Amino acid sequence: IAGATLGFFDSNNIKYKMFNGKSDKYIVYGGGGQWTTDYEQHWLKWLDIFKAAEKVVILPSSFNECQKLIDILDERFVVFCREKQSFEYLKKAKTRAKVLLDHDMAFRITPDLLKGKIIPKTTEQIKAIEQITNAFPKHETIAGLMRQDCESTKHYNTDLDLSSVIYGQATASRQHIMFCTKLIFFGVGCADAIITDRLHVAIAATFSGRSVYMIDNTYKKLSN
Q1: Which residues of 89-110 are buried (b: 16+ CB within 10 A; e: fewer)?
Q2: What is the DSSP secondary structure assignment for residue 144, as one 8-state letter?
Q3: Best CA proximity match to 219, nearest among 89, 110, 121
Q4: Across the chain, how many H-helices and E-strands are there?
Q5: Cα distances (Å, whole numbers) of residue 213 to 134, 145, 149, 189, 218
Q6: How far apart are CA 146 and CA 11, in angstroms?
Q7: In 52-198, which residue ranges form alpha helices assigned H by DSSP?
Q8: Is 12 exposed, middle or buried (0-12, 13-18, 19+ CB in 10 A)?
Q9: Spatial CA neighbour of 87 closest among 218, 106, 97
Q10: Nearest to 89 by CA among 37, 147, 153
Q11: What does the buried/exposed string (b/e) look like for 64-79 if buried means 16 or more CB atoms within 10 Å of the residue's CB?
Q12: What is the pLDDT along the chain (224 residues), one digit of tens a residue?
């Protein structure tokens, strides 16, 4: 999400500065699946930051059982939903925010991130590549890349939870974001076919020309 978002801003000559942990007059939140009951402890801290802003744009996200967010949505907000059920959920809430339906930001990935080698520059990045490489025997053609967290519908046997090799950070550097983006493409490139319940793993695998088999998550994000 983050890699595609920064690429989208750059290609459209949109000026921005990276989040530094402090509030600002204008905030663009990069989207994702945080606005659900499973992650409430993570998104509650954003509400005070949003309350202090003059304008807030939430890029394509999922919304499910997030009443505390709904309670602060007013005319200062433009909110994009990335699937129909989230859109209907927010429209039914009848907030004063402008609510729109759009594609996930990952579909806007720029071509440069699909090409070129992945080059690690830190010990953490080297270990991440080794973890992926060690997870896939050379003879393997079908890889299970299932999530191992609260969104999984049950415990699946998996080769690797690719998205958890290096987690995102709210105050991540551009270099870290672009490395993590390339890491996803490196991971899906290690097999001919992918089985996953990770939305962005499925998108990356599709862009990489792999066969993709998707299993839904707890709040039906993938099927929607």
Answers
A1: bbeebebebebeebebbbebbe
A2: E
A3: 89
A4: 7, 8
A5: 22, 10, 19, 15, 17
A6: 32
A7: 67-70, 84-93, 123-135, 174-188
A8: exposed
A9: 97
A10: 37
A11: bebeebbebbeebbeb
A12: 999 999 999 999 999 999 988 889 999 999 889 999 889 998 999 999 999 999 999 999 999 999 999 999 999 999 999 999 999 999 999 999 999 999 999 999 988 888 778 889 999 999 999 999 998 766 668 999 999 999 999 989 899 999 889 877 777 888 899 999 999 999 999 899 999 999 999 999 999 999 999 999 999 999 99
* Token pair listed for 88: 């209907």
The residue among 181, 45, 175, 189 whose CA lies nearest residue 121 is 175
Q: Which amino acid is at 205?
A: A
Amino acid identity for residue 67 in this structure? Q
